[in-house]
Amino acid sequence: MDVDAALLSVGEFGRYQKRLTVTFVLLQIYVACQSMLIILVGAQPKYRITTPEVPSTHEELVKHVVFEDDFTSIATEWYLIKQEAYKVNLAGSLFFVGLLIGNILFGPLSDRFGRKPIFLTGLFLDVVFGFMTAIAPNYEVFALSRLLVGLVNGGMSLVAFVLTQEFVGKSYWALTGSLTNLVFAIGIVAFSVIGYYIRDWRTLAAVANCPGVVFFLLFITIPESPRWLYSQGRTEEAEEGLQYIARRNGNEKIFVQLKPCAGTLKAGQPTHGVMDLMRYPTLRWRTAILMYVWYVCSLVYYGLTLNAGELKGNRYLNIALYGLVEVPAFPLCLYFIDKSWSGRRKTMTAFLLFAGVACISTMFLPKHLDFGMGFLLNVTSFALCGKLAVSAAFNIVYVFTAELYPTVIRNAGLGICSMSCRIGGILAPFVPSLRSLNPSMPFIVFGIAGMSGGFLGLLLPETLNKPIAESIEDLHTSAYQRLEDKRKKKVESQESTQS
């Protein structure tokens, strides 16, 4: 039997896998705290300058600045205001640069050396560099620590997501993936609550990092992924891992015997790579559009989230709302993407356009409204609508991208799109600073990006109820095209019968 059949016999989602899934999913709270840390640790407080004339040098400015808020941040400790304010955004961008590098490095490393050792190494270093952030003696060390945290945090969470999927049967992948995204949003809310009660930035950084220690101790005893062992031809070790899962599920009488992995028998054959995405016109066109859509989703998602701390009103409540608004986004996109009248493409486009329109609409809000209308028609409300929509679009684009690429090139396609996604994250921290030019400028950028990404998404083919291509040749063969037409006619016939 293969791994899927073996998991079916030992329990695709038994009590041991449920415990593992819950632990891996809860890890996203820690990942979210690290991702959102700069929002509060780098918060810009209110301040006044005690001299009538603004000092010409930063050294003189420091002597005449008085901070008026009840929290500390790297801005208050190292006086990152005026001409030095860009350093806060730079530290946020360095985190996303680290994510980009981590995604590139950790995937191949986990494929070569195994999921467990790379995951545990990344989590351990994440904790170490997280405490380095809390005790940084100067800005330079702080900025370096954020780069290193981003590197190991992004790589570690990527491997954790893969492990979550590989311990359960394929029929549960949608569930575990959904829970991962959902708990990340809950992690944003948890971080805002912690920040509300802990106003010292160093203490906040240390407390937000402490859960990593607990998770590291919990994960030390996890087995290696049976799927990875099997893919490497280490069949006996994969069988031992599956037997271990069976025992922990209470199925001690189950005997697992795997057949040799077909993939290892074909190891000498030439493999496909990133260059294939550029070599074939169909893939080249899809990749260009998808890279832009991923970039837009990341720019708008992280830009709106990081902008939460800059909006009027309670900073901590705004951050919590930006996390809570994601909760209904996932069931919404799950409902629409499986409907024949909407599908993946139209639903993704609709959510991106809605996010863009919501952001652009902030420009036209009247400045003075009565309390009833002002509660609904304000910048925060429209920004929250944009965040909900782009969160749903972000969820859809993961599914849509995987279906648009043939199996032999799917990992390469997802990898190149993920790189584009991180570029959006790198630029996102700088967009809120555009409010110095015009208060509406950040939302104009988000609005134009969302709408352009939505319109470009319409150029992609629909994948709902269509066969998944296994090879690149499948995209061009007449047999594959006939299969698509046959599937489409079958679905239309079923819908007409039901109506």
What does this structure look like?
The relative contact order is 0.11. The chain is globular and about 80 Å long. The chain has a two-stranded antiparallel ribbon with strand order 1-2. Helices cover 70% and strands 1% of the residues. The protein has 499 residues and is an all-alpha fold.
In a few lines, what is going on in this structure?
The protein has 499 residues and is mainly alpha-helical.
Give the overall shape, derived from the CA principal axes: globular
Q: Give the termini separation.
A: 42 Å
Q: Give, in spatial order, the strands making up the sheet with the most strands.
A: 1-2
- Strand residue percentage: under 5%
Q: Residue share in helices? A: 55-70%
The main β sheet shows up as: 2 strands, antiparallel
Mean pLDDT: 83
Radius of gyration: 24 Å
Summed up, the helix count is: 22
Structural class: mainly alpha
Keywords:
499 residues; globular; 22 helices; two-stranded antiparallel ribbon; mainly alpha
What is the topological layout?
Blueprint: H1 3-10, H2 15-41, E1 47-49, H3 58-63, E2 65-67, H4 74-77, H5 86-113, H6 115-134, H7 139-166, H8 173-197, H9 201-219, H10 226-231, H11 235-248, H12 262-265, H13 275-279, H14 281-307, H15 315-324, H16 329-337, H17 343-361, H18 371-376, H19 379-404, H20 410-427, H21 441-457, H22 478-498
Antiparallel strand pairs: 1-2
Helix pairs in contact: 1-11, 2-7, 2-8, 2-9, 5-6, 5-7, 5-20, 6-7, 6-9, 8-15, 14-19, 14-20, 14-21, 16-19, 17-19, 17-21, 19-20
